[in-house]
Write a structure and sequence with these properties.
The protein is mostly helical and 109 residues long. The chain has helices at 5-8, 13-28, 36-53, 55-61, 67-87, 89-94, 97-100. The chain starts with a helix and ends in a 9-residue tail after the last helix. The relative contact order is 0.16.
């Protein structure tokens, strides 16, 4: 049985996923992301799958302070970049390399 991230940490993966999606949309599209709900679900599923199966990932998120949150934001930025490379390659090409590597877009930190 899976223990949900939000049940054992103060992290809310759906909120973080939505934040990362909106970070991209506001910066580059000025509209909603096509298939936004699917992308959000995929990001949350991936985080939960790792949390369930990787003690190292659990240790990264189960920390005091903001480290776990910052780690999940960074990973979701990487994962959404990967999704955009397939779903919307033109948008993926616009993303700066630092975002694709997990850093916030400038002005959104």
């Amino acid at each position: 049985m899976s223990i949900l991230i939000e049940d054992v940490t103060p992290l809310l993966p759906a909120v973080i996923a939505t934040g990362v999606i909106h970070e991209v949309c506001l910066a580059y599209m000025n509209t909603d992301l096509p298939g936004e709900e699917d992308v959000e679900n995929n990001l949350c599923f991936r985080a939960q799958l790792l949390y369930d199966n990787s003690p190292e990932f659990r240790a990264l998120l189960d920390t005091d302070g903001t480290y776990g949150r910052d780690t999940l934001y960074s990973l979701m930025r990487i994962w959404i970049s990967q999704e955009l490379a397939v779903r919307l390659p033109w948008l993926f090409e616009l993303l700066p390399e630092h975002f694709k590597s997990g850093a916030a877009l400038k002005g959104n930190a």
